[in-house]
Design goal:
Elements (H helix, E strand, L loop, with lengths): L2 H13 L1 H7 L5 H23 L10 H24 L2 H8 L2 H12 L6 H18 L10 H24 L5 H22 L7 H6 L1 H4 L1 H23 L4 H7 L3 H12 L5 H20 L2
Helix pairs in contact: 1-12, 2-12, 3-9, 3-12, 4-5, 4-8, 4-9, 5-7, 5-8, 6-8, 6-13, 7-13, 7-15, 14-15
Length: 289
């Protein structure tokens, strides 16, 4: 992998954990996600106007944009449902296993080929990422429905990544961002209304968090938009989709560090040992040819 591309991906991965750190414990999780998405729409439109890009250029790859949006939608459905019904420490390793999905379906559907060295790096990253998050004694199949929703989230992220990497061969990143977020905002709004708890007003459910933590929503939106934009740039500049998404796992040990420092989460010391395994995989991927 080119060092410039690797640097962009690692920068994106280092930014991404701040969104979850900022939004953790929010009173209205659906409002938080929808709020971030709505700010994304605004940022993307302004970004497109500043760059002067032709948004019509997205029409030839509209099917890819729709697939990308659907993948992100399934990711949100899967992760929000998993958070409500299961232990995140048990199922989050599954959610973050998108590189395995990408390698398999990239090979099966897109005819992509991966060298043995690069696959070895992906394997190291996935092993390190899994044990960074997994808890001893946890039972993955104890709740089959939750296992399914976690797998749905993983497949959604993998599908989005594959579609994004193909679209970046044709259009500018900001074009995909504008179209994708325009489709995503109403879709998520409808889904969140369906999930509304009984007795809670719709407007409070969708927008109640803005009264309590508006700056958290804004800061989460800005950082996550920048992170996603950098990932799209890495695809545009020739980054292999499996390698890129494996390098994105660097956000996991960063989350461990941030969680231990700011949120006083336990067991950060033992988990950092697996971070070294993940880091070794990152080095292998960067220098693989």
């Amino acid at each position: 992998m080119e060092l410039t591309v690797a640097g962009i991906v690692l920068l994106a991965a280092s930014i991404h954990p701040f969104r979850d750190l900022v939004l953790k414990g929010t009173v209205f999780p659906e409002a938080a996600y929808l709020g971030v998405i709505l700010v994304w729409v605004l940022i993307a439109v302004i970004h497109a106007l500043v760059l002067g890009v032709d948004l019509v250029s997205g029409l030839p790859v509209l099917p890819l944009i729709l697939i990308s949006t659907a993948g992100l939608m399934f990711y949100y459905i899967g992760i929000l449902t998993t958070l409500k019904t299961g232990d995140l420490s048990v199922y989050y390793p599954i959610i973050r296993a998108a590189p395995l999905f990408i390698v398999f379906f990239g090979w099966l559907i897109l005819g992509q080929r991966y060298g043995h060295v690069m696959l070895g790096g992906v394997a190291l990253v996935m092993v390190g990422a899994f044990f960074l998050q997994y808890r001893k004694g946890s039972k993955l199949l104890q709740h089959p429905a939750t296992f399914f929703t976690a797998t749905l989230a993983m497949a959604g992220m993998g599908t989005q990544s594959l579609a994004d990497s193909e679209a970046m061969k044709v259009i500018e990143p900001v074009v995909l961002l504008v179209w994708g977020y325009m489709f995503l905002a109403p879709a998520c709004g409808i889904f969140f209304i369906i999930r509304k708890p009984a007795g809670r007003p719709v407007l409070e459910h969708l927008f109640g968090g803005w009264r309590k933590t508006p700056m958290r929503y804004l800061s989460a939106a800005v950082t996550s938009y920048l992170s996603y934009y950098l990932i799209l740039l890495s695809y545009q500049w020739g980054g292999n989709v499996a390698a890129v998404n494996s390098l994105r796992q660097v956000s996991i040990p960063l989350s461990v560090i941030l969680g231990g420092y700011f949120l006083k989460e336990a067991n950060t010391g033992s988990r950092l040992a697996w971070a070294l395994v993940l880091a070794a995989g990152v080095v292998v991927i960067i220098f693989a040819r």
